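Quick review question:
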């Protein structure tokens, strides 16, 4: 598809959206004015919509005034699929969520989020993350002190996320019922990203701030999709400016996994440079989990940028080797 195709033009999508949302006849001249198009341009888009099965009627009254009438029954596209089909479809969501090259991308992402929320009981990602940890024996360490109580707390939260179990959390100065979505490093601390059941808001709770936690008996259906959770995490990180763009050279692709335990990767991407090297990049927060991940990969990866992150990692390696000696 050429870059000058109408599909790549914002005006095309604005016009199609406007015309397909008409719910009553509207003056032809008013539509041209609203869309800043010529009569010929409007006619072309009306003909295009007829070609995709959406017939708008152009009418003219006795005074010679034209109007556009929408069809009485608008097409509603429904896609029926098996659970297997739906899981395959969801596997493309992370890539689709990062799509920004088309003017209609934002509308499309919103529709994906809506559908994903509707079928949240068949969510692919949370059970898949749990399976991956079991299959790959991923047992991340904690940034806080490795106390038994802390490990038990984190394990309890992770099990609750997998089981879609609401929790009653007691903090130093407050308590609340929440629906946990994910456990990640945020603002420098291992935190629970959850829905506040009482008001439906999203919040992040540092694990170190939790005094006690129990299962909450109230049933709760998640209001937010994975895409919306990721948007929330990205927004929090951008506000506090604790993120950095990590760039790696991949020397051993067979052992490389595009995921880091308890970490959110912003805009991950992999390219091949002019020398034929595989270059991977993602926006991350510096924490011990990432250092553990890099340490386990060893010579399969090389940190190219940023320099400050590389220095932090080398200090981590030095301390780890001292402990192993």
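Suggested answer, residue by residue:
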């Amino acid at each position: 598809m050429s870059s000058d195709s109408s599909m790549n033009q914002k005006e095309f999508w604005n016009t199609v959206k406007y015309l397909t949302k008409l719910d009553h006849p509207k003056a032809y001249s008013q539509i041209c004015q609203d869309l800043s198009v010529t009569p010929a341009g409007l006619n072309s888009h009306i003909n295009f919509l007829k070609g995709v099965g959406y017939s708008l009627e152009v009418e003219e009254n006795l005074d010679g005034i034209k109007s556009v009438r929408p069809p009485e029954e608008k097409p509603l596209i429904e896609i029926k699929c098996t659970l297997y089909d739906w899981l395959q479809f969801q596997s493309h969501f992370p890539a689709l969520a990062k799509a920004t090259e088309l003017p209609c991308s934002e509308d499309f992402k919103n529709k994906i989020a809506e559908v994903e929320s509707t079928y949240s009981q068949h969510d692919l990602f949370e059970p898949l993350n749990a399976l991956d940890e079991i299959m790959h024996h991923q047992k991340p360490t904690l940034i806080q002190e490795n106390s038994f109580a802390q490990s038990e707390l984190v394990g309890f939260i992770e099990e609750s996320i997998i089981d879609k179990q609401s929790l009653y959390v007691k903090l130093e100065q407050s308590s609340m019922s929440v629906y946990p979505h994910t456990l990640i490093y945020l603002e420098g601390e291992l935190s629970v990203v959850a829905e506040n059941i009482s008001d439906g808001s999203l919040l992040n709770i540092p694990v170190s701030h939790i005094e006690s936690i129990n299962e909450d008996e109230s049933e709760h259906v998640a209001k937010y999709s994975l895409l919306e959770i990721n948007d929330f995490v990205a927004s929090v990180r951008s506000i506090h400016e604790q993120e950095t763009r990590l760039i790696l050279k991949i020397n051993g692709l067979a052992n490389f996994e595009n995921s880091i335990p308890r970490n959110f990767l912003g805009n991950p991407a992999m390219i091949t440079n002019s020398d034929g090297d595989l270059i991977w990049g993602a926006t991350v927060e510096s924490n011990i989990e990432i250092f553990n991940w890099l340490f386990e990969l060893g010579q399969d990866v090389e940190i190219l940028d940023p320099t400050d992150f590389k220095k932090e990692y080398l200090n981590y390696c030095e301390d780890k080797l001292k402990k192993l000696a």
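Why it works: The radius of gyration is 26 Å. The longest helix spans residues 307-324.
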